[in-house]
Design a protein that fits this description.
heterodimer, A: mainly alpha, disordered C terminus, B: mainly alpha, 8 helices, 0% strand
């Protein structure tokens, strides 16, 4: 850690304390359902990062799946012209 | 960047309003869309909407918007959505890349030098274990950077801060989209007659309209 601090000083950046990093990592841990309930000193940084990545990938996939579902729902409505006209008027 | 907690209703309403607005504008652009175009309209509008809830105050939201606007066909659509509100700020990635590469190479030199000093102090096994752990963190950080829009150029602290905000926003996006999808699907699954299911959907969209109007 001291090596990083001296690097930071060299680059002219203000000191980033280890507490700050620990604080942010624990906030991240709170957000992720997989590791939310475990004690922060029992979860390693690499585990937090791994679960964060998995979580974001899952969220991306969900958005994609939901977009699929919604586009199909509109399609089934569009098959009938009367319904299609109503839905289109609501969307436009 | 202001920190946000998860589930404020106003955030969901803001997202919903912007999302519906985006779908409307897209529909005006392209009449008679096929299912793939519809999906694109829904997804694109959702991404733009959630990014715009940050009002360009986070790197991920600016990058996301900029990436969508890079596509020529999307550009006109994006400009229409933002015409009455915030400006699309352009990120300047190349300059940042060069600078961070220079800093990175300095760090690599220092790190290799410091590792040699530590090996003399700690003994080779402890150094090896620690370097494996560091490698693991480094690799996973790399993956995270690829997942968060604009992450490649961020330093460690910014990356974590942006990730926190990005996750909160993604959850809002998923939550609202999920509710709309399941409400619409429930009406179909209950096997209501075609007239009734349109009525349900009409109800949903009317509620959404009123909701949007109230928030405005």
């Amino acid at each position: 850690m001291s090596s990083r601090r001296s690097q930071m000083r060299q680059a002219g950046v203000s000191r980033i304390t280890e507490d700050q990093i620990v604080d942010l990592v624990s906030k991240l841990q709170q957000l992720i359902p997989e590791i939310r309930n475990r004690r922060s000193d029992k979860v390693s940084a690499s585990k937090v990062l791994q679960e964060t990545c998995n979580y974001i990938k899952n969220l991306h996939r969900e958005v994609d799946d939901l977009s699929d579902r919604l586009s199909q729902l509109l399609e089934s409505i569009d098959s009938d012209s009367a319904q299609a006209a109503i839905v289109r008027s609501l969307l436009m | 960047m202001k920190a946000r907690t998860g589930y404020s209703t106003s955030l969901k309403q803001e997202f919903l309003k912007k999302w519906i607005k985006g779908i409307r504008i897209y529909s005006n652009f392209k009449k008679d869309m096929n299912i793939l175009e519809r999906k694109k309209a829904i997804k694109l509008s959702a991404d733009l909407a959630i990014a715009s809830t940050r009002n360009a105050s986070t790197r991920w939201s600016r990058t996301l918007t900029a990436n969508i606007s890079k596509n020529e066909t999307n550009k006109i659509f994006v400009e229409q959505i933002f015409s009455d509100s915030e400006v699309i700020k352009k990120e300047a990635p190349s300059r940042l890349m060069a600078r961070s590469n220079r800093i990175a190479s300095k760090k690599i030199w220092r790190r290799s030098h410091i590792t040699q000093i530590k090996a003399r102090k700690m003994g080779p096994y402890a150094v090896k274990a620690r370097s494996i752990a560091k490698k693991l963190v480094k690799n996973r950080t790399k993956v995270l950077k690829s997942l968060v829009p604009g992450g490649e150029n961020m330093d460690g602290i910014s990356l974590i801060k942006e990730t926190l905000d990005y996750i909160v926003s993604l959850r809002v996006q998923v939550d609202v989209m999920r509710r709309l999808a399941s409400a619409a699907e429930n009406s179909t699954r209950l096997g209501l007659s075609s007239k009734c299911s349109v009525h349900w959907l009409q109800g949903i969209f009317t509620v959404l309209d009123h909701w949007c109007a109230m928030v405005h």
